[in-house]
Amino acid sequence: MTTRVVIRQAVGEDAEAVTAVRRAVFSYKAMSVAATRHAITVARPEERFLPLIAEVDGQVVAWGAAGLTVWTSQPGQSYLTIFVHPDHRKQGIGSQLAERLHQHLTEVGAIRVRTFVHPDGLEFARNLGYDGTRQMHYAGVELKSLPEQPETPEGIELVSFDEVDPQAAYTADTIAALDEPSDSPMDSMEYDRWLDEIWNAPSMDRSLSVAAMAGDEMAAFTIVETDGDRMWSGMTGTIPAYRGRGLAKLVKSVALRRAAAAGITSAYTSNDDENGPMLAINNWLGYHRVQTELALLRTLDN
Ligand SMILES: CC(C)(COP(=O)(O)OP(=O)(O)OC[C@H]1O[C@@H](n2cnc3c(N)ncnc32)[C@H](O)[C@@H]1OP(=O)(O)O)[C@@H](O)C(=O)NCCC(=O)NCCS
């Protein structure tokens, strides 16, 4: 019997099924159904976001998505994500999704595509013309035993994101993001889009996200996203003038403690291999590596 694969555009109602496939593939990521629905529906027209799903006998077995990377000033940058449920691999589903998505990216003027793969997806990606650039380490920690909380330096006040002006959080996030290791500079995030994609995302838990304020200025922050009893660190950042004073360690220490008190049992995060300070902080907090993904790039022939 041959299986019938149907590929179609994903809609918000597919979020639950897509999340289930995602969980089967990435046990070390935390993303709720609401966050998946948000990811499917939040993109603006200029992002040219195309979310696809593959169904076998009416059941969602794979996800593929691509769009233009709008948070960088570099022209023509784009991204592509594909994952196929482990029970449905080696049947050409990933290749069909890749073909549709590369065609789309070419049509919307993308020049370079970035994707992340598991080590076991490397051959698939290389066959599609992708080549290695960076490594992204995923790590997790159980929140039962955390190191002692560092002292709060004088002049710094710790507050939750419930108590901060979103504009202050936007400023700190966009300044810190300029120094996060990446293939393209993160230098083009407008406030309205940041509000839609980050501040108002359903996974953002403002009561657990923590800021270190120096007067009205946000010196450091850590964003907590939740998925049931698991949390994901959306971003931790310290603005340059306040780096090297233990503030990132402090805000993340406090956030993990507050999360544990709120019933969260495990925390996950990802860091670029070149992010020495953040890897040092997470090692100190007790995170252990659970997976390394490869960040790959290919160019498109236009
Ligand atoms: C990563 C970042 C948040 C660190 O902020 P910070 O407030 O300076 O961090 P802290 O002072 O709390 O701690 C830094 C730790 O890294 C260590 N460190 C600094 N540079 C390092 C390097 N190149 N390699 C290894 N460790 C390093 C420090 O020694 C310190 O550890 P210690 O207290 O055990 O000595 C900040 O550099 C930043 O905003 N970077 C850009 C955004 C980013 O990459 N965020 C993380 C995304 S995953």
From TrEMBL:
MF GO annotations: acyltransferase activity, transferring groups other than amino-acyl groups
CDD domains listed in its UniProt record: NAT_SF
Gene3D superfamilies: 3.40.630.30
Positions of the N-acetyltransferase domain: 5-147, 159-302
Keywords: Acyltransferase, Transferase
Entries under InterPro entries matching the protein: Acyl_CoA_acyltransferase, Bact_Acetyltransf, GNAT_dom
Any Pfam family the entry gives: Acetyltransf_1
Name of the featured protein: Acetyltransferase (GNAT) family protein
Lineage of source species: Bacteria, Bacillati, Actinomycetota, Actinomycetes, Propionibacteriales
